Every structure is written in structure tokens, then in C-alpha cells.
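Final report, closing paragraph on structural work. Over the funding period we assembled a curated collection of sequence-structure pairs, and we close with a single example.
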Amino acid sequence: MIKFTFYLFALILIFAASRVITVKNPVHAALFLVLAFFSSAAIWLLLHAEFLAIALILVYVGAVMVLFLFVLMMLDVNIVPLREGFVRHLPIAAFVGTLILLEILLVIGAWHQVPPPEAAASALPNTEALGMVLYTDYVYPFEIAAAILLVAMIAAIALTMRPHTRAKYQKPEQQVSVRREDCIRLVKMPAETKD
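Its predicted structure, as stored:
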């Protein structure tokens, strides 16, 4: 049962990852990426790495994918099928949602059958053991990765804050201070007569 569940999740993961790069619709690609993340989290759960599984779901599915979909919708991608309504995307969303639900049910069923890790490694809870290794043996790589992420975050903020030459901005102080005489010119013209 455990091998079957692992291979099933691996096949779903490979299928979802291949669909991410082959579908033409970016919303469908994002939904398949969510399915790939859930499949990876299920495999982590089968390996008794609960912290990594929940971190994958919370960080990638809960934050990164929501942000990606938000940016995708804000970019106003000029794809006509995206604007045709909710019903058009319903079959793919229902398919992905059903697969995620089946994965959750299968991993809950198979998780209790997986033998626990070795006795020496199971003396500490999973999250505590990960924290001990991360903050003792790998403290310098962890700090370097944090510094690199900080530099990337500052660079992303700097790129969004610089002025764009193509963008047109409204200046509210000029709009409020406009007078009628500046915008309208009254012209006196003689009336036309019919001959």
C-alpha cells in the first residue's frame, strides 16, 4: 500500500509538472503547479517529514501561488479565453481539486502504515531535530541564504519604486487646482443666417 501510494503521488507529480510547462493558459498552469506542490507535500508526509510538508503547502501554495495568480490577473494578459467566465475554467479546477482531495485521503490512510524512522532519529520530534541541525551544523549557509534573500527583496522593491518612462501618472494637486478659465475658452461668433 505504501509503495502504491508513493508511486501514485510520483506519477501525479510528474503529470502535473509536465502540464505546468505544456498548457497554454497561465491560470491552468498555476492550478497544475498547485497540484504538483500538493503531490510533493504528500511524498514528504510519507517520509515522516511533516514540517517540510506543511511548510511547502503554507509557503508555496498559500503565499507564492496566491501572489502569482494575483500578479497574473493584474498584468491583464491579453488572452481571450481567460475572460470567458468561470464556467470555462471549472472542469480543470474540478479535476485538480478532486486529485488534491484524493491525495489527502490517500496520504492520511497510508501515513499510519509507514514505519517510523530509526529509533535514534525519532528521539526528537521532527521539527526540533530539523531546527537543531539547521541552527548548529548549517548556521552559516542558513545566514548566507537569508542575506541573499534580503538583497533580492531589496532589489525587487527598488525595481518597483523607480519611475517608468512609459507610464502615465495623474497628479492630484494639479487636478484640484485647475480653474474653469484654464480649460474653457468662450468664443463670440456671429449667428448664421439662411439665405
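The chain has two domains: 1-115, 119-161. The chain has a mean pLDDT of 79. We thank the funder for supporting this effort.
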